[in-house]
Amino acid sequence: MEKLKTNWTDFKAALEAQPDLDLQFQYDDGKFVDASYHITEVKQAPITSVDCGGVMNAWTEVIVQLYEPENRQQLKPMKVKKALSIFNLVESKLSLNPLAVVKVEFGNSAYEARQMHPNSITQIGDDLIIDLRPDTVQCKAIDRDGNCGIPAEKQKIELVSLSGNTCTPGGGCC
């Protein structure tokens, strides 16, 4: 099992290494996108955000959208080279950021649409299987410096009356 780097260049290179295999997408343990899927769209999304620590972040995502028709149209999935031809067509019209984070968007009647990261690419027989895992929420501020941007709770101290050492108005102690 090859652990993928999720940028566009590495993703495409992993596919280009196996053009004659059948391309399958696993979206959950033992659950695969139906063989009649279509790659319906490739999107490039520049993201700009400010995290809870007040720091601006920017990155780009390339999102490959899969559509699973209700009626099965074929028994075997598309070949990797067919997917690559779709990606090449897209790149002839839209310059994709080679370092963009890759996500695959998929959903069907039993699985709500979501964007997932390619977790690994594995060759099993004549199949090249892209294992997809749901995206997770993260706190960039904690990852960066351990400070979530939420002020730390101040330690409460108890003020104790000191007998004999009190200051009174006009007493000259202040």
Structural overview:
It is a single chain. The protein is of the alpha+beta class and 174 residues long. The protein has one domain (2-135). The protein is 17% helix and 38% strand. It contains three helices and eight strands. It has helices spanning 8-16, 80-93, 140-145, and strands at 2-3, 22-28, 31-32, 38-50, 56-67, 101-108, 111-124, 127-134. Strands 1, 2, 3, 4, 5, 6, 7 and 8 form an eight-stranded mixed β-sheet that branches. Strand 5 (56-67), helix 2 and strand 6 form a beta-alpha-beta unit. It is elongated, with a radius of gyration of 27 Å.
Short overview:
InterPro entries: DUF6428 (IPR045534). Pfam families: DUF6428. It is built from three helices and eight strands; from the N terminus they run βαββββαβββα.
Produce the secondary structure layout.
Elements: E1 2-3, H1 8-16, E2 22-28, E3 31-32, E4 38-50, E5 56-67, H2 80-93, E6 101-108, E7 111-124, E8 127-134, H3 140-145
Parallel strand pairs: 2-8, 5-6
Antiparallel strand pairs: 1-7, 2-3, 4-5, 6-7, 7-8
List keywords for this structure.
single chain, 8-stranded mixed β-sheet, 3 helices, 8 strands, DUF6428
